[in-house]
Amino acid sequence: MKENTLLNTLMNLDNAFGVSGDETDVAAVLRKEMEGLYDEYMEDALGSQYFIKYGKNREQKILFSAHMDEIGFIVNYIEEDGFVRFYPVGYHDDRMAVNQDMIVKTEDGTLVRGITGSKPAHIMTEEDHEKVQKIEDLFLDLGTQSREETEALGVRIGDYITFAREGYVLNGGKFYTGKSVDDRAGCAVMVEVLRRLKDTQIDPTIIMVGTVQEEVGMRAGGPIANNMEPDVVIALDGTLTGDVPGIEARQCSEAMGKGPGVKFYDWDPILGATGNNVPRKLTRAIIDAAEKNGIPYQREVITGGGTDAWSAAMTGRSYLAGGICIPARYMHTAVGTVHMDDMENTVKLTLEFAKSYKGL
Ligand SMILES: [Zn+2]
Question: Could you say which of 23, 214, 300, 344 is catalytic?
Fold first, then answer.
């Protein structure tokens, strides 16, 4: 049995299957990691997982959410010659789906291996070389040569697919890379925060929620807020960094290893020009907790992605909502990467914010 560390927890969660709409495997891993760390547990109809740790004040509730789901694909057709056709689930970059190892999760939970094939470079035309192959034009090769053989493996229309990639630490340094660090990194932070609160009781009640279907439209934000009616909702989610070649700092100013991002604006990718302007009293309280405890942080204003907190903000009677975000590279690809110092500082900031919370 591996020691309960932030890194091991991240690995266990990251390696679990959990394409939006089928988060049962990752939810089971999260429940295992959370064992003994909470007072009450609940699952809602969508499948979000709630872990409640009562504070001295039961009525003062802070809800932290991290989404369990990952982007992936869904089988939409099986060809007569056995190849599997699929559609994207969540927001993808078509460039990264070609020539990959994949896993299909069948109805009975079996994980079937496959590879996304493409035309070899030798016979590609000049035009082929210029254009990106669309996900809809790709196919999955399961090593079968007929529909019957593919179906004999248990694969059916509607099964979900994700990348077959085990996460690991790059060359013994501080960068961890895995298929679903967005947002298993946030899930791991939730576990670690409760671990550090084990045997202590702080003032507010802490509710950690592993949410479902964030990648297909931040669907759990409203339900989780309405179910728990907390004082504050804070998303612990991944965010973009600009410290790689090809990105201008003005587009994306956060960098790896410089601390969690404190969200000032939570953008809505569906509606585009709208989102949640995080209330200043909330950003101030988070930043106060960082500064009083010497925790590095980055001020975050980016577009291009939102969190469950924005959809929570304007639901029901409305909620104070914001985000403490984990800097990541290569988001929404199979090689997402986070920095373990950022993970540690996200845990610390979440913890200190909760400990110092006196109401807003
Ligand atoms: Zn995310």
Answer: 214
